[in-house]
Amino acid sequence: MKAVVIEKPGVVVMKEVPVPVPQPGFARVKVAAAAVCATDLEVLTGRIPANYPLTPGHEWSGVVEAVGSPEDECWIGKRVIGSNDVVCLKCDACRSGNWRYCKEFEEIGFKRDGAYAEYIIVPAYGLCELDDHVSFEEAALCEPLGVALGTLEKAKAKFAETCLIVGAGSIGLCMLAVAKAMGMRRIVVCATSKKRLGIAEQMGAYATIATSECDLEEEMKKIHPGGTDVVIDATGIESCIQQCLRLAKKGGRVLLAGYGRGKIMNIRMDDVHINNLQVIGAGNNWNMHKLAATLMADGVIDLKPLVTNVMPLDSYQEALEMAEKRPLGFVKAVFKP
Ligand SMILES: [Zn+2]
Ligand SMILES: [Zn+2]
User: Fold this and answer.
1) Measured between alpha carbons, how far is 316 from 312 in angstroms, rounded to an integer?
2) Which of 17, 26, 84, 140 could pair with 33 as two cysteines, CB 3.0-4.6 Å apart?
C-alpha cells in the first residue's frame, strides 16, 4: 500500500509498504479521509518525539476491512471513526476510563503508524460506527472536535455564559461549534486578519474581531462588560495567553487549547491569583470521539466549513506546506487516499 512515512525528523517520503495485519483486538481500516493537523508538523520536525520511521495522521475515518479477533467480525464493512488510544484496558487508570494515564498508553499517529496511508491499524475497542449521512471528510474531524468537547466539559462551561475564542484555526472553530451547541452566548472569535474570520462568521459567532485592526481589550469591554466567563486560547502564543488572562472576568476560566509543547511563558501572577482564575489545559479528549460522532450525526455540530482543501495522498508535500503556512481561507486539508 501507499503510505507517507517520516523516516526521521525532517525527512518525509511516500513509499510502498506492506498492508498491515491486525493483531487480536485490532482492526484494519481502509482510510477514507485523513485530516492534516498542525501537530503532524511537530512530529515531522521532531519537536514531538515519535517512533520513527512513522506514518503520521490521527484524524481519520474509513471502513473496517479486517479484524484480528473473531468476536470483532461484526465490524467488517462498517463505516467508522475510532480512538487513537492504544492501552492495556486492565490497569486501574484504564478501568476508571482514564486511558491516557495508562502506563502502556501509545497514540496512533505518534507512537504507532497513523492515517496518511491506504490502511491503518486501530484498536477494535475504540471503534465507533458512523452515521450514513456524515461524510468521511467531516468525520475525520471528530478528533479535534473531541478536544473541544473534552476541554469545555472540563471547564464546566454552562448555558448563557459568555465566551471568547482567540484564534480561528481548526481548534478555535471546533470550540466555537461546541460553545454554540452548549448554549453559551456572545461567543466572540478573534484572529489577526479579518480574512481569517469568514468561517467563524459563517458558523454563527456573535462577533468577530480582527486584532490587526483594533484593540481587542477595548472591543471586549463593549461586548462582555465586566469580563468574559470562559476565555479560550487556541493559538499557543505567549502574548495571546497573557491577553486571555486579562480578559477573563474575576473567578472566570481560561482554557489553554493552543499547541504549546516545550514552551515556557511569562504570566503575570496577579492576573490569575488576584482574579481567582481557573486555568485549564486541553488534551483530555479521550473517550470523546463517540460523542463527537453522535453530535455530527444528529446535526448538532456541523464542521463541514472547516474542510477547506480535499486532496489525494500524493499531494502530501503541498498539504503539509499549507498546514504550516496557513494561507488565507485554509483551515483543514483532508486526504482521500
Ligand atoms: Zn490533531
Ligand atoms: Zn491501562
Assistant:
1) 8
2) 140
Ligand nearest 145 Cα, by number? 1
The ligand whose atoms approach the alpha carbon of 104 most closely is 2
pTM, whole model, 2 decimals? 0.95
All structural domains of the chain: 2-141+303-335 (3.90.180.10), 147-281 (3.40.50.720)
Ligand nearest to the CA of 39: 1
- Residue 54 CA to residue 63 CA, distance in Å, equals 22
Tens of pLDDT, residue by residue over 21-42, are: 999 999 999 999 999 999 999 9
Which segments of 243-322 are extended strands (E)?
Answer: 248-256, 278-281, 307-311
From ligand 1's centre to the CA of 39, what distance in Å?
Answer: 6
Give residue for cell 495567553.
Answer: 241
C-alpha 279 – ligand 1 centre gap (Å): 22
